[in-house]
Design a protein that fits this description.
The complex is a heterotrimer of chains A (334), B (771) and C (164). Chain A has 334 residues and is an alpha+beta fold. Chain A contains 12 helices and 12 strands. Among the domains of chain A are: 54 residues, Uridine Diphospho-n-acetylenolpyruvylglucosamine Reductase, domain 2, CATH 3.30.43.10; 101 residues, CO dehydrogenase flavoprotein, C-terminal domain (Enolase-like, domain 1), CATH 3.30.390. In chain C, 35% of the residues lie in helices and 15% in strands. Classes of the chains: A alpha+beta (334), B alpha+beta (771), C alpha+beta (164). Bound molecules: flavin-adenine dinucleotide, iron/sulfur cluster and FE2/S2 (inorganic) cluster (2 copies).
Chain lengths: 334, 771, 164
């Protein structure tokens, strides 16, 4: 790791002031340090070389509180994945989020990793993570994965970059319609997770629309019907400690045998957590059946094309989605 | 008293002398002999150190003034270095030495390279090295080294390397050495005589050892003495190779390895890091610690060679094999490292009785990390193909796969024509494993639903496990009757310390606590060979026993004088000298030894050659049950049973651990382990533990070990053979066979990743049918 | 901060305070192994991929290769060296020896620290919870079954000690 300076400011404004105008921390500049589990790996691999790290764990305004209120569930940006996994309220009311957090990484990483950092973690594309390769996402001209080893890459071609977003919690949060509270030099704003994430594009080669001098303060899950249930399924290369090849988060409410409300998100298929609106349209108002789920699964992947080596993800994603829906509606899995 | 003979032979290369040691004609412990220490479970002698964090590994050495080394590596798979400037690095803060082709002595390395060269042949090839006061300073200094490369065309696959106009990895071309051809009988005629022929192609991946402790060590070149604390399976090999490379006589080089964090075959030779650390230390005049980082570990320090194998089996209706033909290509990487060879063809020649066999094995250079032995090198790759092919044959013939193997049983090592020392070893493995698993009444595969279960079987033989000469042990008895055993072998995590101490304790009639074992230091113990080939217990065990026998004779002579009885009436049990027929006169051993203090009794033992007229081999077999999810491609291993002939089991705890650990690696090889290279860039994309998947606790299934545990009396005086490598040999094909049983699809390319399973299901129209 | 980029930090490890000077880039694992010479904690990947560097920070198991030493001021750190009382191994360490919960021993400190954190928080874990606690610890020697066994036996031994 290259040398850098370490600052531990008292107030959030001080931290934001340090960020302001300091660049994106790619070469030089300033980066915020939360759990450090992504940031330090990027620095160890010499992918970024910030001049200064600003520790945000000791700021009075940031916290790890998980609180239920009239506005729904508010999760402080510093809440760790372990706290999300273990929180009794999350376990009982939002088990989908506890599951997604609990399936991420390992106990040690979950004890360190914060939710804010988790949303902002960079892709695991192996070309991206190799300092010898100057690919498009890192400012180069070419996406090496497209014509290369793309077995872990995206099904939806919505960006010059076909890396998939690595977060598990983000997929569950998207299905829960979560919103992100950001604070910048000119105050706070709250945006939907769907607009917080955006496939990288020319002029914005990163996975979010967050400005470089904005800090995630909290994530909010709006109140929802008490009968809504959710499930998170994740397929990996081994039984644990791997990023999702494909994951599915589904939240659903039945009313008199019909699907009254449903939301579906997929992970591992696009550069941002993927909101499967087409599947929702097929499902909402319908009576649950194996056939319906099969149609929803097909709909969820309309527009998905396969790269040379990731074709297996198509049937995998469909199977996981069918199973998630069957599970939520009490249908037999087979 | 051990003695030796010398055989003199005059040949074209001059006089050759063969020194043949004698163990003193020791009869082996009998099969029914009641042994009080050997054969019983004991915890590892070094357990306390390892669980308290006090065990010292090569990277834990802390010496005054110690520096830290780092290596600059080539970012290109093949290139010429056109300019190299290290001056800024030399001037950087904290830097004490910089080594590169500009100042390194010309030292030949690998079979076809140099320590530092102006041509690099793989991503990760060594370009320069720095020693500085901290790791961070060394890393900063590396960034100051200026290198200009002229990239050259390269090849990273076997197919590309064999293409007509392929870029040449070495000037000699891309074939590494001569193809190795073996033939007996008339294989083509055998195929013609066959009622059924299986003709299939299989591929095995490049697997990375990923021992948790990386290669490297701490070197201190002090005056004319070099001490190297190294992570190695072979202190004497490293001493010899490093001494030769750096130009020191052997007695000025001392190699120490107290504990090692895994090697799995990759640490049986000296590596460039050993020499670089030594030379940096010489330049700096200070100790230098140089440990590879994980990426370098996975790029340059060995791998299991990927293979492509075409296998043809011919058999009659009754299952009798008429021909076995295997054409094998394996990728050696950019260099040949030496050490144990990856003999992929070996198992084809020996596992089944067959008069007509041909194997042809070609090693190919590619611009990637060099291959080196990896736990049962060659046999793992060979069995992965042969044992699937045998299953395919069994299906074609509609014969039970175990029965098919029984019908082709060989009691003779066919290439040499010698009978095995334990000819029933494999048969006993078949019996025990099928019984433990319940093979006869195994569940039949389900043919509907998305979760399909199936069972699979595979067998193996292994050329190792027999041990070999020479190898030495010394033994000393202190004034209080306690014993020190000293040998130059090493414990690589296999339990060598404990197993050898048990041999000494058994022979001497002492409780294990009264034995201390010292090993892993060329400056302390006598020559012992590399710990590879599952050989250590079978090599050094008999040497320890021979030394103990001699020591016992000496101490009983002393006791005889003390007790005024003939020594032949004396024996030692549980630390006491007993007089035959006169229990009253028993005395504690310490009473005897104290009488002659400070004189010390000492003895030496050595390993004699293996029997000339017999072949020592190890065998085993596995049964496995899997569940395959036809929609998600998930393979769950529900249970696995295994049985192995490793001769006498000296310590059941240690053997169980070897078995379970080996199978866990076999599961990794079967299901998830594969180096991925971008063939356009020549870059390894997963030289880490994130994308190179090794099994976690969640991937390890319940394993039932049904040991054979029959002493191999013809093998050596302890009756024990090795178990380090065998357990992993049959695992991958047993799993592949079970997957076939479950879903009716053959996957002939390992590993059976989710990706391959889903692709195979889709190709067979099964997975897609449901979506 | 000193001109050379070094700054003071006091690490509290196994109950003792260690004031040291480090660069901010020094990770906790390097500080432990180099500045404090506590080499029981191992460094294997430096990327959060292996678990060999596991230590306990404020009661929770963490990877010391992804923590900065300067970020650990004021946090209670326990390493493998902190488990034994003098020459008496902890029940968990004893159980690792008795169950043969290791071969080469290189992952062992990390495995033990993960299980120690578990047993501190949940003295009566199920086998599943024990296995889950070490999912973040690779054992390349494959000693997993015996690692889980050691966890179980340690929990039982500790329960017996409690009763006594
Ligand atoms: C081996 C390994 C396996 C993993 N497996 C998984 C997995 O299976 N599933 C999964 O979801 N994740 C996985 N992760 C990723 C892990 O969850 C993230 O690294 C972690 O959540 C990041 O949080 P952190 O607090 O450590 O962030 P940091 O590393 O501290 O920060 C990450 C980025 O976010 C910025 N940042 C952090 N907090 C804020 C904030 N509040 N406001 C603004 N910017 C901020 C930082 O500046 C930095 O750029 C894995 C990581 C590793 C190393
Ligand atoms: S997928 Fe994205 S990160 Fe990967 S190589 Fe392409 S552009 Fe780079
Ligand atoms: S060294 Fe920290 S996880 Fe591997
Ligand atoms: S004991 Fe060797 S890695 Fe676990």
């Amino acid at each position: 790791m290259r040398a850098f300076a370490y600052a531990s400011p008292r107030s959030l404004d001080e931290a934001i002031a340090l960020l302001d105008g300091a660049g994106d921390g790619h070469a030089g500049g300033t980066r915020l340090l939360a759990g450090g589990t992504d940031l330090l790996t990027l620095m160890q691999a010499d992918l970024i070389a910030p001049e200064r790290l600003v520790d945000i764990k000791r700021l009075a305004e940031l916290d790890d509180r998980i609180e239920d209120g009239a506005e729904g569930l508010t999760i402080g940006a510093l809440a760790t994945l372990a706290e999300l996994e273990e929180d009794p309220f999350v376990q009982s009311r939002y088990p989908i989020l506890a599951e997604a957090a609990g399936l991420a990484a390992t106990p040690q990483l979950r004890n360190m990793a914060t939710l804010g950092g988790n949303l902002l973690q960079r892709p695991r594309c192996w070309y991206f993570r190799d300092s010898r390769v100057h690919c498009w996402l890192k400012g180069g001209d070419l996406c090496y994965a497209r014509g290369g080893e793309n077995q872990h890459h995206a099904l939806f071609d919505v960006s010059p970059c076909v890396a998939v977003h690595p977060s598990d919690p983000a997929v569950a949060l998207l299905a829960l319609d979560a919103r992100v509270r950001l604070r910048g030099p000119s105050g706070e704003r709250e945006i939907s997770l769907g607009s917080f994430f955006a496939p990288p594009e020319d002029g914005r080669r990163k996975e979010t629309t967050q400005a470089d001098n904005e800090v995630i303060v909290a994530v909010r899950i709006p109140p929802r019907h008490a009968d809504a249930r959710g499930v998170y399924l994740k397929a990996m290369e081994r039984k644990a400690w791997a990023f999702a090849l494909v994951s599915v988060a589904a939240v659903l409410r039945l009313e008199a045998g019909r699907i009254a409300e449903v939301s579906v998100a997929l992970g591992g298929v696009a550069p941002a957590p993927w909101h499967a609106r087409d599947a929702e349209q097929v499902l909402v108002g319908a009576e649950s059946s194996a056939d319906l789920f099969a149609r929803a699964a097909d709909a969820a992947l309309t527009g998905a094309g396969a790269l040379a080596k990731n074709g297996y993800k198509l049937p995998l994603a469909k199977a996981l989605l069918r199973r998630a829906l069957a599970d939520l509606t009490g249908q037999p899995v087979d | 008293m051990p003695a030796f003979r010398i055989k003199r032979q005059e040949g074209d290369d001059g006089v050759a002398l063969q020194l043949i040691e004698s163990e003193g004609d020791l009869p082996p412990w009998g099969p029914n002999e009641a042994l009080s220490v050997v054969g019983h479970p004991y915890p590892r002698l070094e357990g306390r150190e390892k669980v308290s964090g006090r065990a010292i590994y090569a990277s834990d050495i802390r010496l005054p003034g110690q520096l830290y080394g780092k290596v600059l590596r080539s970012p290109y798979p093949r290139a010429r270095i056109t300019r190299l400037d290290v001056s800024r690095a030399e001037a950087a803060p904290g830097v004490h030495a910089v080594l590169s082709m500009l100042n390194a002595p010309p030292i030949g390395w690998y079979q076809e390279g140099q320590l530092f060269e102006s041509t690099v042949r793989l991503v990760g090839d060594e370009v320069a090295a720095v020693a500085a006061e901290s790791e961070e300073q060394a890393e900063d200094a590396l960034r100051l080294i200026e290198v200009a490369y002229e990239p050259l065309p390269f090849v990273t696959t076997i197919a590309a390397a064999l293409a007509p106009d392929a870029p040449k990895v070495h000037e000699s071309g891309n074939i590494a050495g001569e193809p190795v051809i073996y033939e007996r009988g008339d294989p083509e005629a055998g195929l013609r005589q066959a009622d059924v022929v299986i003709d299939e192609r299989y591929e095995t991946p490049c697997a990375l050892h990923n021992a948790l402790e990386a290669h490297g060590g701490t070197a201190f070149w002090d005056g004319d003495q070099l001490t190297l604390w190294d992570s190695t399976q072979a202190v004497f090999v490293v001493r010899e190779e490093v001494a030769r490379a750096v130009g020191l006589p052997e007695h000025r080089v001392r190699v120490i390895k107290h504990h090692m964090g895994g090697g799995f075959g990759a640490k049986q030779i000296a590596w460039k890091v050993d020499v670089i650390a030594s030379l940096l230390s010489k330049l700096a005049g200070r100790p230098v610690q140089l440990i590879l980082d994980r990426e370098a570990e996975n790029l340059v320090s060995g791998n299991r060679n990927p293979t492509r194998q075409r296998v043809r089996l011919g058999a009659r209706r009754d299952g009798t094999l008429t021909a076995i033909v295997a054409e094998i290509a394996q990728a050696a990487g950019a260099y040949r490292t030496g050490g144990e060879a990856s003999d992929v063809s070996g198992t084809y020649q020996s596992l089944y009785r067959c008069p007509n066999v041909r194997t042809e094995q070609t090693a190919v250079y590619i611009n990637a990390g060099p291959a080196v032995a990896f736990r049962a090198p060659g046999f793992v790759e060979g069995a992965a193909a042969l044992e699937q092919a045998m299953d395919e044959l069994a299906r074609a013939l509609e014969i039970d796969p175990v029965e098919l193997r029984r019908r082709n049983y060989s009691e003779v090592d066919q290439p040499s024509g010698k009978p095995y020392t334990l000819p029933e070893g494999l048969r006993l493995s078949y019996d025990r494993v099928t019984e433990a698993f319940g093979w006869q009444d195994r569940p039949r595969p389900s043919s509907s639903g998305t979760k399909r279960r199936g069972t699979g079987f595979a067998a193996h033989d292994w050329v190792g496990g027999g041990g070999h000469d020479p190898g030495y042990a010394w033994i000393e008895m202190n004034a209080d009757g306690t014993v020190e055993v000293i040998t130059g072998t090493q414990d690589i995590g296999t339990g060598t310390r404990t197993g050898l101490a048990q041999i000494a304790a058994e022979e001497l009639g002492l409780p294990l606590e009264q034995i201390t074992l010292r090993l892993g230091d060329t400056g302390v113990g006598p020559y012992s060979p590399v710990s590879s080939g599952s050989a250590t217990q079978a090599t050094i065990g008999p040497a320890v026993r021979a030394a103990a026998v001699d020591l016992k004779r000496q101490v009983l002579d002393v006791a005889a004088a003390l007790l005024e009885v003939s020594a032949v009436r004396l024996s030692i049990e549980d630390g006491k000298v007993l007089v035959d027929g006169d229990p009253e006169r028993a005395v504690a051993l310490s009473e005897v030894t104290e009488k002659i203090a400070p004189h010390m009794l000492q003895a030496r033992g050595c390993r004699a050659p293996n029997p000339e007229d017999k072949a020592v081999r190890t065998f085993g077999a596995q049964c496995v049950e899997v569940e395959v999810d036809t929609e998600t491609g998930t393979i769950d291993i529900l249970r696995l049973a295994t049985s192995h002939d490793c001769g006498r089991i000296v310590n059941p705890t240690m053997v169980d651990s070897q078995v379970i650990g080996g199978i866990t690696q076999g599961i990794g090889f079967a299901l998830m382990e594969e180096r991925v290279v971008d063939d356009r860039l020549g870059i390894v994309l997963n030289a880490n533990l994130e994308d190179y998947y090794v099994p976690t606790v969640a991937d390890a299934p319940p394993i039932a070990h049904a040991p054979v545990d029959v002493p191999d009396l013809a093998a050596n005086s302890t009756g024990a053979k090795g178990i380090g490598e065998p357990p992993l040999i049959p695992t991958a094909p047993a799993i592949a066979n079970a997957v076939y049983d479950a879903i009716g699809i053959r996957i002939r390319e390992y590993p059976l990743s989710r990706q391959r399973v889903l692709a195979a299901l889709a190709a067979a129209g099964q997975g897609e049918a449901r979506s | 901060m000193a001109a050379n980029g070094f700054q003071p930090v006091t690490l509290t490890v196994n109950g003792s305070d260690y004031p040291i000077m480090v660069e901010p880039r020094r990770t906790l694992v390097d500080a432990l192994r180099h500045d404090l010479a506590l080499t029981g904690t191992k460094k294997v990947c430096a990327m959060g991929d292996c678990g060999a560097c596991t230590v306990i920070v404020d009661g929770r198991a963490m990877y010391s290769c992804l923590l900065l030493a300067v970020d650990c001021a004021g946090r209670a750190i326990t390493t493998i060296e902190g488990l034994a009382h003098g020459n008496n191994l902890s029940p968990l360490q004893e159980a690792f020896v008795a169950s043969d919960g290791f071969q080469c021993g290189f992952c062992t400190s990390g495995q033990i620290m993960s299980l120690h954190a578990l047993l501190q928080a949940h003295p009566h874990p199920s086998d599943e919870e024990i296995a889950r606690a070490v999912t973040g610890n690779i054992c390349r020697c494959g000693a997993y079954a015996n690692i889980v066994k050691a966890g179980r036996e340690a929990a039982e031994a500790m329960a017996r000690q409690q009763e006594a």
